[in-house]
Amino acid sequence: MSRPACHQWHKHANLADRFIPFVAMHEFEGLLFSDPTTMAHSMGVPALASDFTTIRAAFETPEHINDSYQTAPSKRLLAALPGYQKVLHGNVAMIDIGLATVRSECPIFDNWLNALEQLVYPCMFPQLSKRITSKPAQFWR
């Protein structure tokens, strides 16, 4: 599909077909538990790595960390690190953890990104679309 044809498809596509929501099971902070050691170091408290690892080990995936309002991932971080600030600590930790790690640990999040990539790659990179199959993001990791 050439770029003009791709552009025309997007221009005339039904909005319902173009909207692919991501509904996180819980909170952004859950994704940070993809790498508890890096999270602790990024937040400036490497001593908390074992505590974060224990929390992570108790759940199937980081996306499942949330027993109740009191034990949501952000509440767990606030309990361990009273000065936790989502915008500061969360962003720095996410940058250090990296998207590849989050995708490998969080299958719901990964599936959502794959769905978006399936829409974009054939349009933006038609020369690559034949080489990219079920997981286009692997090409870019």
- Which class do the helix and strand fractions yield? mainly alpha
CA radius of gyration is 18 Å
Strand portion: under 5%
Query: Which whole number gives the mean pLDDT?
Result: 79
Helix-strand topology string: HHHHHHHHHH
Shape: elongated
Between the first and last Cα atoms, what is the distance in angstroms? 24 Å
Number of helices: 10
Low-confidence stretches: 129-141
Number of strands: 0
Number of individual domains? 1
Give the helix level as a range of percent: 55-70%
User: What does the largest sheet look like?
Assistant: none
Characterise this structure:
By secondary structure, this protein is mainly α. It has one domain (3-140). The chain is 60% helix and 0% strand. It has helices at residues 3-12, 15-18, 28-32, 36-42, 49-57, 73-80, 86-97, 99-105, 107-124, 137-140. The chain is elongated, with a radius of gyration of 18 Å.
Provide a brief overview of the structure:
This protein has 141 residues and is mostly helical.
How is the secondary structure organized here?
Blueprint: H1 3-12, H2 15-18, H3 28-32, H4 36-42, H5 49-57, H6 73-80, H7 86-97, H8 99-105, H9 107-124, H10 137-140
Helix pairs in contact: 4-5, 4-7, 8-9
